[in-house]
Each structure stands twice: as C-alpha cells, then as structure tokens.
Design goal:
102 residues; alpha+beta; two-stranded antiparallel sheet; globular
Length: 102
Amino acid sequence: MIDGKEIKLGEEVMTVPALSLKQIRTLLPRIKTMKLGSLEDEDLDTCIEIIRSALSRNYPNITKDDVENMVDMRNMVPVTQAVMNLSGLESAPAGGAIAGNQ
C-alpha cells in the first residue's frame, strides 16, 4: 500500500496516495482548466478522474462508477484538494492548478 491520507469515502476508509508523475502528465491539461467545485460536466469528470487515478494506485480495480458512488458534493472538493496537495499541486486562485512547494 502506498502511503497517503486516510479518507472516509462512502462506508470505507481508504488510503488516498499522491498521483504518480505519469498520472499527473496525463491529467495536467484537464487540471489546468478545471474549476474546482463547479457543477459543469467536464469539471465533475476531471475531479472524479483525479480521485479515481489516485485511488487506483492502492485499489487497482476501482472504477469511475465506484468513485461516482462514493463521492458526493460534501466531499468532492476536499478529496480532490487532498490528492492535489499530496501530489505537489495546489489549487490556483482562478481554478486549475500550479506546482506546489512540496
């Protein structure tokens, strides 16, 4: 199990690790334009994919559908921010992300 932050998702406490460099490279174009907390389909899909990608490092069989059923409007932003912070990224003021100081 890769170290990360323990977060309760649905009925389970899961260890959410940082994104790998490969995952960051794949997701970065979407992360840069994402408006965290937005209800637009593209932004919701990006949040779900960020969370799914991070979780897949410890839970390889997790699906987008699994994440959509565990994440709700109360925890979507905090979980996405946790992944971003663990990955050395932080939310930019106008949405998107910038490299962190970690």
